[in-house]
Predict the 3D structure of the following.
Amino acid sequence: MKKMLLMLLIIITPPCLTANDDRPPVKYDFLAKKQTQQFINKMVSRYHFKRSYMVKIMKSARLDRDTLARYTGRYKAGTTVGTWKRFKAHVLDADTLRKAKQFKKKHHKILAKASREYDVPPEYIIGFLAVESRLGTYTGDYRTLDALSTLAFHKNRMQKFFRKELEHFFLMCREQGYDPRKVKSSFAGAIGCVQQMPSVFRRYGMDYNRDGKKDPWAIEDCVGVIARFMHQNGWKNGKQVAARAHYKGKRFTKLKTGYKHRYTLATLKKYGVSPKTTFNEPKASLIKLHDSNYDELWLGAKNFRVLTRYNASSNYGMAIFKIAESVR
């Protein structure tokens, strides 16, 4: 499972935080690019795709300018990582929390099964699904072929990664019987209700509902993927996840914050930070949620780190935590 994390560390914004801008994909002659021809040759020689098929599909690929803009130039915070304000507005809104509670009731059988088999709480499975795809209701409206072709064959900071993902995408479509021209995803090519890149789906996709196919859009299969992910990454059921912290003032700048920055409780105390409730571990990640008028501080336990292994963002982990706590 650890290799899966490398794919997910590109920090893809959950689809509920993305929005296609006013620049729709446009016609583009990918076949005129030398890199595309080399890619086709590789797919034909190594994986035995028909050349006519590859040419037909790549001829239909369009240039997605919105996708390309997110991965070119200097990295800009908020373009591929959700700010806390955005998570709060689009993921922790009253409507999402209400639907999360309804989801728990509707899918209680599959959630209970996954919870029992993988020893993880169903509320956190719901949290993942809510953040990633609004509980399976929004899995992306970008055409995957356009997004991955654009990023594979136009210069950007992750071009090599995306070219490999385009390769996996074609293989995934052949294995699953999909038409590559019809698959939809996030702006970066993440697919389904838990937003897996093609390589990750090919390796870790599950047929958890036992219907004979691994379906990235099937809620039951996605529940299994998340439960297994949490279990394999060291989730300890019944252990603490996070605790609210107290400090003086409205903004905190005394220490570095984020899931990577761990401190002993004694060190935190020296800097005026203390847990508002009992915190049961000797060290904690210091998490800062930057809101409009103040900073909200939290102490993250080892279980909190598990949440951020799916998407390397403290805001992401805290969004899952708060959703999970709201549906208990």
